[in-house]
Every structure is written in structure tokens, then in C-alpha cells.
Design brief:
Elements: H1 3-9, H2 59-62, E1 72-76, E2 82-87, H3 99-107, E3 110-116, E4 126-145, E5 150-171, E6 176-183, E7 190-199, E8 204-211, E9 216-225, E10 231-240, E11 245-254, E12 260-269, E13 275-284, E14 292-301, E15 307-316, E16 323-331, H4 335-342, H5 348-364, H6 370-395, H7 400-404
Parallel strand pairs: 3-4, 4-5, 5-6, 5-7, 6-8, 7-9, 8-10, 9-11, 10-12, 11-13, 12-14, 13-15, 14-16
Antiparallel strand pairs: 1-4, 2-3
Helix pairs in contact: 4-5, 5-6
Length: 406
């Protein structure tokens, strides 16, 4: 039975997102992938994979043409780490899943490769900087962890303009790799990214996505397993403010036996037209017996005018598994938590900040690099301060500004 047949068998039906005839339900694994840009029509926003995305703002990154300005990619790390420029097709863990990724693959030119030697255990992280310089550009990064190695790789995306990047991650057998991807571009910047990871036998991947900046950010993270015993932990934090669209799409493809995956993403939204989208797809193929998987998305809406969409999906083709589940929740502050803090003399605005900081702490703590976690806590604190100002302004009686001079 195919994935699509499995979905239909569990009660799913043909559907439509607008006028016209319903379209057949398409399983996540059956969507096309290709290195050829021509295989992907320019999105209109009616396609399943683009229906949440503001495609009109992305036209420049859909053009099959060279960029106007290449981003600056550089890296540094401890002794033994190999950092070099290679051909874009040197690894091919990633196959583009949409038009923007295919355009980036064909026009990024060369790739920056970071390679962790076999059996190396790095005591310091590798730092990769991807700076968009203001034009329309494309980037390509390769991270490869050798067999039985252990390392942390921090990837910082900053700058302005429009950027589309592909990131390929290969975790060798028995290796333990943590990749932290931070999106913190200028408020008007646009960043589209596809991250593909291949997890080896008895290997562990920790992928942390942090999105705290950018007008439109869309990150697709895909994981496959090269052998049994693989373990993937995918966690993320995002904070969208007024006019920002932060979108994260995940696909975990369980095709090997006795593998695990755990997905946990948390987001906060504040301001008019602040928007977040989270799509979590997990496929357990017929051969993937012994799979253990769970995915969870939680969203905290801090002000009126913000919207969060959360869509977890689970496709199961075998009953011989350890466990599988998903959940999502979107809501406002927990009144009981606020009451508890205020009853102990903490002002309401400070109590709200403490609740949100605690909401994010378990994920940011997984980064494991104090200087990075401290920086992210500072950025979140700044965002919370602005959210508090918005809430205060919304509660202020009409005309108060004119009377008080505020």
C-alpha cells in the first residue's frame, strides 16, 4: 500500500483550498524532487507546499538566473577540521524539493565544506558565517561528520537582501553531530533554505533551528537514515514580530529499522500580521520496523493580530513500531503561571517575560554553547520588551496619548 493509499485508508479524502475540483491527497514522500529548475513551475500559492507562504514576495528567488550579489561564507574551527571550497555537487545528500532550492543549487556555484575527521571529538564548536550583502544571492554549505566523531557546528545567517541556501549534512556511522542554524537577518531580509541530513548507522544528529529575524524566513529540514539505530533530534525556536513571516517545514523519512526521531519546535508571535507556520511530516515506511518517533509544536500568541498555523502529519506503513505520535498547541499566556508570579510580588510585565523565557529555555539550552545562548536570550528579551509595549498600547484608553503626552 502506498503512502497516499495509507492516508486514504485512515479516513483522509480528496481536498481543495479554493474554487474548482478537489485534488487528490498527495503524500509528503510523493512530492517531486529534482536538480532541474524546469521541473518546478513558479509557485502561485495554491500548491500544497506553498499555500501558507507569501509567494508574491519571493519572485526574485524563483527566477532561474544568476544572483546579483553572492553572500559571504566563511568558517573557523579547532585544529584538524577541514574547511575548503568544493564543487556544489560534491556530496549530493540533498535533492532540491522546490523551485527556490533548485535555483540555489544551480546558481550558488561552489560550496563551502566543513569536514570533521574520523573519530575526532572537538572541544570547541565550528563557526560558520553566512552574510547576505544586500542583493539577490545563493549559498551552499556542506557539513560532514566522520565516523565516530563528535562536534558542534554553529551556522549564523545575517545581513540584508534576498538569500536562498542549501545545507547538506552527513553524519557518519556512530558519529554525534549538533548543527545549530541561526536565522537573524535584517527586519526586511528574505531567506529561503533547505537543510537535508543523512544519519548513519547508530549515529546521532541534533539539529537546532533558531529564527529571530527576517521579513520572510522559510526553512525546510529533511532527515533520512542510512542504516539502523540512527537517532535524530530536531528542535527549533522562532519569534515573529509585526509584519514578519517565519515558516518551518520538516520531513523525517524513516526507511531504516530501529531508528528514532524527536521533533520539538516552539514559537512566539507579537504584533499586527506577525505570522508563523510549522509543518511537521513524519513517514514510517513499511521496512522501518522498530521506529520510535514523536513531534510537538507549541505556539504562544502574545498580542492581537498575530497568527500561528501548525500542521503535524504522520504516515505509517507498518504496525511493527515502538511508538509514534504528534501534537500541537497554540494559545496565550497561562493565567495560573502569571498569577503565581504576581502573587509573589513580581510586576505583570516582568512576570510575562519570565513565562516566555521559560517557554524557550529547554530548547535554547540544547545549543550547548554559552556565548551563543546568552546572545539569543538577549535578543528574545528585546523582542519581549517590544511585545510588552504593544500590549500596553493596546490596553491604553483611546485618547490617552494626547492627554498624557505619551
Amino acid at each position: 500500500m502506498s503512502s497516499a493509499e495509507t492516508l486514504v485508508a485512515t479516513g483522509n479524502k480528496a481536498h481543495s483550498h479554493g474554487p474548482g475540483s478537489p485534488v487528490p491527497l498527495q503524500a509528503r514522500s510523493e512530492r517531486p524532487t529534482s536538480y532541474d529548475v524546469a521541473d518546478f513551475p513558479v509557485p502561485t500559492g495554491r500548491e500544497e507546499e506553498w499555500r501558507f507562504t507569501p509567494v508574491k514576495q519571493l519572485k526574485a528567488l524563483f527566477e532561474d538566473a544568476a544572483g546579483t550579489e553572492s553572500p559571504k561564507l566563511d568558517a573557523s574551527g579547532p585544529d584538524g577540521v577541514v574547511i575548503e571550497t568544493v564543487a556544489a555537487d560534491a556530496l549530493k545528500v540533498l535533492t532540491p524539493q522546490d523551485r527556490s532550492a533548485a535555483v540555489a543549487w544551480n546558481h550558488a556555484g561552489e560550496a563551502l565544506a566543513v569536514r570533521i575527521p574520523v573519530e575526532a571529538e572537538l572541544t570547541e564548536p565550528v563557526h560558520v558565517n553566512v552574510a547576505s550583502l544586500g542583493g539577490r544571492g545563493f549559498g551552499h554549505l556542506i557539513v560532514e561528520a566522520g565516523r565516530h566523531s563528535k562536534a558542534i557546528v554553529i551556522v549564523d545567517h545575517t545581513g540584508a537582501g534576498e538569500l536562498s541556501t542549501n545545507v547538506e549534512i552527513k553524519v557518519g556511522d556512530g558519529a554525534d553531530l549538533r548543527v545549530v542554524a541561526i536565522q537573524q537577518g535584517d527586519h526586511e531580509s528574505i531567506h529561503l533554505a533547505q537543510h537535508d541530513a543523512l544519519v548513519g548507522r547508530d549515529a546521532r544528529l541534533h539539529h537546532v533551528a533558531v529564527t529571530l529575524g527576517g521579513k520572510v524566513v522559510r526553512v525546510g529540514t529533511n532527515v533520512r537514515y542510512a542504516g539502523p539505530g540512527g537517532d535524530a533530534e530536531l528542535v527549533g525556536v522562532y519569534f515573529a514580530e509585526s509584519g514578519q513571516h517565519h515558516e518551518h517545514r520538516l520531513f523525517v523519512d524513516h526507511e531504516a529499522t530501529n531508528c528514532k526521531s524527536n521533533v520539538l519546535y516552539k514559537g512566539a508571535l507579537a504584533g499586527d500580521q506577525a505570522r508563523s507556520v510549522w509543518i511537521g511530516d513524519v513517514l514510517i515506511r513499511a521496512a522501518a520496523e522498530g521506529t520510535d518517533t514523536f513531534e510537538l509544536n507549541r505556539n504562544l500568541v502574545l498580542t492581537d493580530g498575530a497568527r500561528a498555523d501548525s500542521v503535524p502529519n504522520l504516515e505509517i506503513e507498518t504496525g511493527e513500531i515502538e511508538g509514534a505520535g504528534h501534537a500541537s498547541a497554540t494559545g496565550r499566556f497561562d493565567d495560573e503561571q502569571l498569577f503565581y508570579l504576581q502573587a509573589r510580588g513580581i510586576p505583570e510585565d516582568a512576570a510575562r517575560r519570565l513565562v516566555v523565557a521559560g517557554f524557550f529555555n529547554d530548547i535554547i539550552g540544547k545549543i550547548g554553547v554559552p556565548e551563543v545562548t546568552d546572545r539569543l536570550h538577549d535578543v528574545i528579551e528585546e523582542k519581549l520588551a517590544r511585545a510588552a509595549e504593544l500590549s500596553e498600547a493596546a490596553l491604553r484608553p483611546s485618547g490617552e496619548e494626547a492627554v498624557t503626552g505619551k
